[in-house]
Amino acid sequence: MIGTLHIRNIGIIEDLSIDLNNGLNVLTGETGAGKTLIIDSLQIISGGRFSKDMIRKGKENSFVELCMYEEKSEEFQDGTIIVSREININGKNMCKINGRMVTVSQLKEFMSKYIEIHGQNDNQNLLDNKLHLTYLDGFIGEKIKKLKDEYLKLYLEYKKVLKNLAENFGDDKERQRKLDLLNYQLNEIEEAKLKKNEEEELEEKRKIFLNSEKISENLNNADNLIGENAIDSISMAIRALEKIENIDKKYEKTNTNLKSMYYELQELARDINSYKQDIYFDEDERNFVEERLGLIFSLKRKYGNTIDEILKYKVELEEEINKIKNLEGYINNLNVEKKELENKMNILAEELYKIRKQYSIILSKNINKELEELEMKNAKINIHVEKQDEFLKTGKDKVSFYITTNIGEEEKELSKIASGGEMSRTMLAIKKVLADSDKMPILVFDEIDTGISGKAANSVADKLKAISKKHQILCISHLPNIAAIADYNYFISKEVKEERTKTNIKLLKEEEVIKELARISSGEINEVTLKYAEKLRSKKAS
After folding, report:
1. What is the DSSP code string of 399-432?
2. What gap in Å lies between CA 181 and CA 317, rounded to an integer?
3. At a CB cut-off of 8 Å and minimum separation 6, what does 258 contact?
4. Which of 152, 291, 429, 487 gives 20 to 30 Å between its CA and that of 182?
5. Cα separation, 21 vs 119, whole angstroms
6. Shortest CA distance to 446 belongs to which of 423, 469, 472, 477?
């Protein structure tokens, strides 16, 4: 439900906050006070179109914010949803859902799950044939749900089979072209004879080649220094200590340690000399390493970031080539699966059709009964359920609402109804019948009572009240019959302050409601109209 609606700088609305409640909220007031601007603001926050002419004169932007509450969910942990939309005079939009920036189209899609606005010329959902099947299935309820779930499961499998057929069932030329490309890629990888860790080993060799001069120079220096100085010096030191080692044990121990160092140094000298012998800088080998690394780089650019990935891609190529070579058998299996799914889906689609056909008659009768009570006795709704050739997500049925508004006339689609009043009452009749199954939490009615009075007005009021038991209703009305049965009454007025007109709104107390009912029933407040208002209001209590 809507908790608070905040509007700023739209037309004569300067800064307005409306706290709404569950049930039936009715807005009344002076002509031109800004009632329609409130509906316009709800359309704007629902992702509707906006003209910069609507921005209040002298202001740079307009702003609408809506606070809604629903049951806790994974997306909205505390059940609070705050939606806002700011529109600047340069045409730029800033839309947010709980602080997260969204596009206008995303805002529209999101809000379409929460608010439905109905006015004289604004019943798009009702006119959308795509939603007519949803209305009918919602009316049928649990009796069709299991069947639809079974069908949908098969339908998703069916779409997967069709996708596989589309991807693999090309003509011979296309198949051969694809096979040639795959074989070329496979041959290129196979001819490279890649090995795991090969790139790392080649990089090590390349590093040695790039530093060959430096390595050779410093190995020679190390070899010369050890051979010329260190080994000879230590040898002489050992001979000197041998002459005194029998004098004191410590000299003997030191000489023993020195001999160990001498042997280790000899071993190191042999290693360094061996490194010198191993280093052989062959230009052909250097070229081979560079070419090999270049080939690996080229393959990585085409087939994967590493040699492992390239080898994995090679396996995938082999599998795809094998699949294409054996495509005939693969496609035959897919076609068999497709046929089996079609047979099962046709059986379920036929059952869906029968149930929809049966309940379309019941739903039509129920709506026609409501139309009769709304003083549209000659109007008749006829819900068409027609079989289609193709499989759809919900079966093979197309559901359309048709209407005849006068005896002897040909029935037409709902969108062909000329009168805005007839459209509004037809929509109200449908909403009344579908109130229990309709999942839309918030319904907005803009002057749905235009052009009606008497018994029809009472009937409209009764139906709005009935719908408000399951939905939050926001209704702008000029009829005392409707205002009298409201759960909450709001009065919209305007005032001129500092040579500017602005809109005000007030939640009326009970005595104020009586006065407002008297005003809208006859245009003046006196003893007679007040008694009439009290009588109307007593209907709410009953």
Report:
1. EEEEEE-STTSPPEEGGG---HHHHHHHHHHHHH
2. 10
3. 234, 237, 238, 241
4. 291
5. 21
6. 477
Domain ranges of the chain: 1-114+440-508, 175-325
Q: Which residues pair with 152 in a beta bridge?
A: none
Question: What burial class does residue 433 get, using C-beta atoms within 10 Å of its C-beta: 0-12 exposed, 13-18 middle, 19+ buried?
Answer: buried
Q: What does residue 445 show for φ and ψ, rounded to 5 degrees? A: -120, 120
Residues pairing with 119 in the sheet: 122
Positive/negative CA dihedral, 56, 61, 62, 67: negative
Q: Extract the tokens encoding 345.
A: 């889906």
DSSP codes of every residue in 135-151: HHHHHHTHHHHHHHHHH
The token pair that represents 204 in the structure block: 């090590």
Strand partners, 82: 67
Average pLDDT, the chain: 84
Contact 12, 30 (CB under 8 A): no
Task: Give me the architecture of the 1-114+440-508 domain, per CATH.
Answer: 3-Layer(aba) Sandwich (3.40)
- For residues 250 and 230, what is the distance between their CA atoms, to the nearest angstrom? 23
Give the integer Cα–Cα distance in Å for 169 and 504. 67
d(CA 50, CA 478): 26
Q: Which residue has the tokens 């629902």?
A: 46
pLDDT at 228: 62
d(CA 242, CA 252): 8
Q: Is 245 helix (H, G, I), strand (E, B) or coil?
A: coil
Tokens at 532, concatenated? 């009439």
Burial class (CB in 10 A: 0-12, 13-18, 19+), 470: middle
Confidence tier at 294 by pLDDT (50, 70, 90): confident
Q: How many angstroms separate the CA atoms of 505 and 46, rounded?
A: 22
